[in-house]
Amino acid sequence: MIQFQQVSLQRGHNLLLEQADLTLHSGWKIGLVGANGAGKSSVFKLIMGELHCDNGDLDLPGGLRISHMAQEVPTSERTALDYVLDGDHQLRQIQQQISDAEAAHDMHRLGELHAELDSHNGYSAESRAAQLLAGLGFSHQDISRSVKEFSGGWRIRLNLAQALMCPSDLLLLDEPTNHLDLDATIWLEQWLRQYPGMLILISHDRDFLDNVVSHITHVEHKKLNLYKGGYSAFELQRADRLAQQQAAFEKQQQRIGEIEDFVRRFRAKATKAKQAQSRIKELERMEKIAPAHVDSPFSFHFRASDKMSSPLLTLYQADCGYTDKAILNKTSLTLVPGMRIGLLGPNGAGKSTLVKTLVGDLGLCSGDRHESENLQIGYFAQHQLEALDMAASPLLHIKRISPKASEQEIRDFLGSFGFFGDRALEPVENFSGGEKARVALSMIAWQKPNLLLMDEPTNHLDLEVRHALTLALQTFEGVLILVSHDRHLLRNTVDEFLLVANGEVSEFKGDLDDYQNWLLEQKREAQRAEAEAFAKPTEDKKSLSAAERKEQKRLAAERRNQLRPLKKKLEKLEAAMETFHEKLSEVEETLSDASIYEEANKEQLKAVLQQQAELKQQAEQTEEEWMEQQEALEALEAEL
């Protein structure tokens, strides 16, 4: 049992908790929710002993084994498998003691240590670690790669795997589904449901919370309020309390009307798609949960372009991918206003490739792509957060898009995204990941697209912004293409699914539960194929002659030699990207100087902005080439 008794906690000038009480029991799975800055991460630090109560007491059981997911991104030389195994500190300690005993030829001590290793399930440790990595989307080849070879998002997955590997009585996870795709999110959900200890989970994924936790702790008004059930149950219970605030409740009726209008248009298709029924069920509980969001500062919309054509965009018999390798073959897709499509498919199957092809960032290997003269694309992807001008404010970002727009008009618009007062004038570099995502969303919404492509838009967004995004997408009148691991967002914004798998794009006739079953079947088929492949080699090897085995080794060595030039090319491209980023930093530092915007420096400003645009274009082209080379390298490694 964990008990907070009259706990007060202050960080700087902010009083986060004031005489807060909370009792959590063994075996509970608790979702910790609350507004950004309310103190959720500080509660974790209190439990881990990194912070101490200013007043009151926090009681933890003696000998409590705590595992938590590290947020820092390592650059270790260790292999992915070893890095995950390092999460089990006791295992590593026993293994080191075994090495010492072997060196000392202490056979008696060695026998004791092997018995200890057996009781710790140490002999199955590598297998368990490999299963964790596979569940989180790592391939068999990835297991032996060094940590430093992985991108930031994949290193965070390694941190998660390491936390799961650590034997624990209490597991603390902070936003574990960020940087996971839908497949890995579903796997993690199943793993956590079977976890025997106490789980405290910070997450902004409501479906994930609903499917994992038994209780919700809401950090609000400096208190820790406990609710029984998942996030939806919490929402309803909180709504019952807030519904008494009639004025606040009326504020929500306009939003409910928008959803009713949407479902009214959609109901005609209810006999054809399971998604329709889930949307209607969402409406049925909308009036109950609406008051739970009365204090949300977010109320934005995606207004479609006034000019609309049908079709807006067409792909015909298109091979999508890169110059030397098509990822998707013979893809035909016609997008007309009103279509709402969710993309499903395993990690690496080509969902992002399809999105980039639709955007126009990737050219076709073959086939046709035709866009209407009125096509206006809005594209959200994680790399666009990095492309923001860190020295510029949200207002300046919009001003650069529409120089003639008045400051008051832009301020009013940014207020719907939660940027009020001076916050709209602050440099983006001081913003959190969620705030940067809101800036990127506001830039898209301002330009009134009629084709909206969103690749994992909810990463870094809290529950209130996700709720506002769901409502905004429901009323968008153009074409929506969505890739997301947030099932609540998918379930309540798209009308149909396309499955991207095995080099093809096809209609998926089912809902997200059917997709989960499809994933399980794919996994079973892969296991059967692996078992069959494992059974054959011994027979095949016996029948190979010495000359044939020698030829096999020669071919393997030849393929390894093919990797060398690709790796050198990647190193050169990485150096070039670093140079471009350094130059961009210098340009952005120049743009952060207020004097450059004076009339006398008009020509200099123009030249610097031109230089910034050229550098960004060169950086993007270099990054694109790096991605092509990386995919080619991974494909070749898979053949070895």
Please give a structural write-up.
This protein has 23 helices and 18 strands. The chain is an alpha/beta fold and 640 residues long. It has 5 domains: 1-65 and 168-242, Rossmann fold (3-Layer(aba) Sandwich); 73-152, no CATH class; 243-293, no CATH class; 313-518, 3-Layer(aba) Sandwich (Rossmann fold); 560-639. Strand 6 (170-174), helix 7 (182-194) and strand 7 form a beta-alpha-beta unit. The chain has a 6-stranded mixed sheet with strand order 5-6-7-3-8-9, with helices on both faces. Helices cover 49% and strands 18% of the residues.
Structure described in brief:
This is Probable ATP-binding protein YheS. The protein has 640 residues and is of the alpha/beta class.
Attribute tags:
six-stranded mixed beta sheet, repeat, 18% strand, 23 helices, single chain, alpha/beta, ATP hydrolysis activity, 640 residues, ABC_tran_Xtn, Rossmann fold, 49% helix
- Percentage beta strand: 15-25%
Q: Considering DSSP H and I runs of 4 or more, what fraction of the residues is helical?
A: 40-55%
CATH fold category name of the largest domain: Rossmann fold
Task: For the record, give the distance between the C-alpha atoms at the N and C termini, rounded to a whole number.
Answer: 51 Å
Q: How is the main sheet built?
A: 6 strands, mixed
Protein topology:
Layout: E1 2-11, E2 14-24, E3 29-34, H1 40-48, E4 55-59, E5 66-68, H2 80-85, H3 89-103, H4 107-119, H5 125-135, H6 152-165, E6 170-174, H7 182-194, E7 198-202, H8 206-212, E8 215-220, E9 223-228, H9 231-242, H10 246-251, H11 253-266, H12 274-289, E10 313-322, E11 325-335, E12 340-344, H13 351-359, E13 364-371, E14 377-380, H14 383-386, H15 394-401, H16 407-415, H17 433-446, E15 451-455, H18 463-474, E16 479-483, H19 487-493, E17 496-501, E18 504-508, H20 512-535, H21 537-543, H22 546-591, H23 602-639
Parallel strand pairs: 3-7, 3-8, 5-6, 6-7, 12-16, 12-17, 14-15, 15-16
Antiparallel strand pairs: 1-2, 1-4, 8-9, 10-11, 10-13, 17-18
Protein name: Probable ATP-binding protein YheS
Family: Belongs to the ABC transporter superfamily. ABCF family. YheS subfamily.
Keywords: ATP-binding, Nucleotide-binding, Repeat
